[in-house]
Amino acid sequence: MVVDVLDLVTGLCLKSGRSRSRSRSRSRSSSSRSSRSRSSSRISSRISSRISSRSRSRSRNRSRTAAAAAAAAAAAAAAAAEAEAEAAAEEAAEAEAAEAAAAAAAAAAAAAAAASASASASASADADAEAEESEESEEAEEAEEAEEAEEAEEAEAEAEAEAEAEAYQ
């Protein structure tokens, strides 16, 4: 609608002989609006990029905290299993089966330690994989934003060129 009004006004100005100065003024005004629009678009893109980067960073930190908590829980379970194994070994020693209980306690402690190491490694691997995915998605988003900004600038340049061409016709 604004374009139609501008076309109508341009046509009237052509008839009255004042078209060139007014069309130049409009062209400068249009160019100024386009420049402000591009600047606003760039600022908006930067803000969006920073927000998404911070969000991904918080997500990675939560994953690392969860991995550390899982490792601590596994270590506590291993310590409890070892304490139970020691208690069982003491009871077995009193009942003449000390060697069998000690072997069982050692096996239980080894199994608990293996479970702890496995849980810790799994949690760490999950956190690393999530961090890697987050970085890849961040790079993809930044590339997409850059591409959109370039397309917007090209479209604005074409619009300016068309406006100038119409102004001189």
TrEMBL record:
Residues 17-27, 53-63 have a biased composition (Basic residues). Residues 16-169 are annotated as: Disordered. It comes from the Eukaryota. InterPro entries: Antifreeze_1 (IPR000104). Residues 83-97, 127-169 have a biased composition (Acidic residues). The keyword Acyltransferase does not apply. Keywords: Antifreeze protein. Residues 28-52, 64-82, 98-126 have a biased composition (Low complexity). GO terms for molecular function: antifreeze activity. Belongs to the type-I AFP family. This is Uncharacterized protein.
